[in-house]
Amino acid sequence: MSIAENLQNLKKELPGHVTLVAVSKTKPVSELMEAYEAGQRIFGENKIQEMTDKREQMPGDIEWHMIGHVQRNKVKYMAEYVSLIHGVDSLKLLKEIDKQAAKHQRVISCLLQVHIAEEDTKFGMSEEEAIALVGSRELEALEHVKVVGFMGMATFTEDEAQVKKEFQTLRALFDKVSREHPEIRILSMGMSGDYTTAIACGSTMVRIGSSIFGARNYHG
Ligand SMILES: *Cc1c(COP(=O)(O)O)cnc(C)c1O
Question: How far is it, in rounded angstroms, from Cα 88 to Cα 114?
Fold first, then answer.
């Protein structure tokens, strides 16, 4: 099936309150343009340089989301334009984002990545750290970043019960924190293999790559 058909089928499945981030990492601009022409306006990349290169070649009305692990020394390359940074896992990184956003008189929206998977290969803060950071004075002092939600990745497993348990954990955290902090309104969870489960568990934003663009040649 074509990229446009994949997108169309996916959109039919997604509830209206769930935002689709088309994860286009490793894919050429020509394929991103196919998605763009089919109406997609939000793209997710996991490398800052690749995202910046693609942005320069594509129309200006795209929202670019950084979904990968962020190296502090590269924040400056995306501060001018990035719409949402999903993988923020420390106050130190937030401070750098704040500093770079200030140079462009912007306020950059960020999600705190929370570690929910069993594997310890996945980045993220603990639930306790995330709770402590939201509403903290240190965060309030940063005028050019806004934490607007959480992101999580489930364990890569066929065990759906395990995946469900992890997504439910993050949803519970989201509910708890957003009650006191209404600015926490985005819950980014779900990829090609597990987005149905993620949505059932209350995801509001899914990051889908291979179900739209096909398999990637290398693991990104
Ligand atoms: C690559 C990636 C995705 C998309 O993965 P697919 O399985 O291709 O849908 C989602 N989130 C993150 C953080 C990724 O790195």
Answer: 9
Give which of 14, 144, 150 is closest to 79, Cα–Cα: 144
- Lowest mean pLDDT segment, chosen from 55-64, 113-122, 172-181, 202-211: 113-122
What is the overall mean pLDDT for the chain? 96
pLDDT, one tens digit per residue, over 146-164 is 999 999 999 999 999 999 9
Strands 19-23 and 63-66: unpaired
Domain spanning 3-212 has what CATH number?
A: 3.20.20.10
Q: Is residue 217's pLDDT more than 90?
A: no
Q: Which of 19, 46, 197, 205 to mutate to test the pocket of ligand 1 (most atoms within 8 A of CB)?
A: 46
Pocket of ligand 1 (CB under 6 A): 23, 25, 46, 67-68, 153, 191-193, 207-211, 220
Widest distance between CA atoms in the chain: 50
